[in-house]
Design brief:
- The chain is of the alpha+beta class.
- It folds into two domains: 76 residues, no CATH class; 117 residues, 4-Layer Sandwich (Phosphatase 2c, domain 1).
- 15% of the residues lie in helices and 36% in strands.
- The protein is built from two helices and 17 strands.
- A hairpin with a 2-residue loop joins strand 11 and strand 12.
- The longest helix has 18 residues.
Length: 225
């Protein structure tokens, strides 16, 4: 077992080849991504570990406070427990280029679901092919399908994100195929990220990509199909 370090660790369950990336602080975080035998299955977990920082309420700085990434902090000097407020921000840009119709679609759902008292945010990018119909349908439905298809891990300790994402993408594909949008030459890519409870879960279909920025270095979180 590795010694716990002050890092944010992104990993998949069974890979043997971790990638290194530079964190904002100059330390190194370990990123491991797995490409499964079935190219349509991608699994990614983000594990937040404890980081120790320093603070002293009387002199300004020492090493007597632990900050937990789950949003709480404890000051050993007075045993007070305070709550940290974490805010996320996002932005969107899309360029139509030479196409007659904008075929891209974006969905941002802040607090789109609550599980176990934790709020989760949803981010989705859909690149339509042969028209915007399928991309727009994914924009309106995929995040809702994901909530419907949540799979709980064995023992009920959390969400099985790998199975949940797989089932959600399959159901979305079925809906589009049997609906009026199921035209042979119309389709869409999809790359989605769910953020919450100290985790980032990424899934994709097609060649739309997700990347993580650390110290100005872009690290791939998805594989093109």
């Amino acid at each position: 077992m590795e010694k716990e370090e002050n890092i944010l660790s992104l990993h998949s369950p069974s890979t043997k080849h971790p990638w290194k990336m530079t964190s904002d602080s100059g330390d190194f975080s370990r990123l491991t991504v797995i490409k499964t035998e079935n190219a349509r299955q991608r699994r990614l977990k983000c594990t937040c570990q404890t980081v120790t920082i320093s603070e002293n309420t009387s002199t300004g700085v020492d090493k007597d406070r632990d900050l937990l990434l789950n949003g709480s902090k404890t000051c050993k000097q007075n045993d007070d427990v305070q709550t940290l407020t974490c805010r996320s921000s996002h932005g969107v840009v899309s360029v139509i280029g030479r196409r007659r119709e904008m075929e891209d679609a974006v969905k941002v759902g802040l607090g789109f679901m609550v599980k176990g008292g934790e709020k989760f945010d949803f981010y989705g990018v859909y690149d339509g092919h042969g028209g915007s119909g399928v991309a727009e349908e994914c924009k309106e439905r995929l995040h809702k399908v994901l909530v419907e298809e949540i799979v709980v891990e064995e023992g009920g300790n959390g969400i099985d994100w790998g199975r949940t994402m797989k089932r959600s993408f399959e159901k979305m594909d079925e809906e589009v195929s049997r609906g009026r949008l199921g035209e042979e030459m119309v389709g869409s890519t999809a790359v989605v990220a769910v953020v919450g409870n100290g985790k980032v879960v990424v899934a994709n279909c097609g060649d739309s990509r997700a990347v993580l920025s650390r110290g100005g270095v872009a690290v791939a979180l998805s594989f093109d199909h």
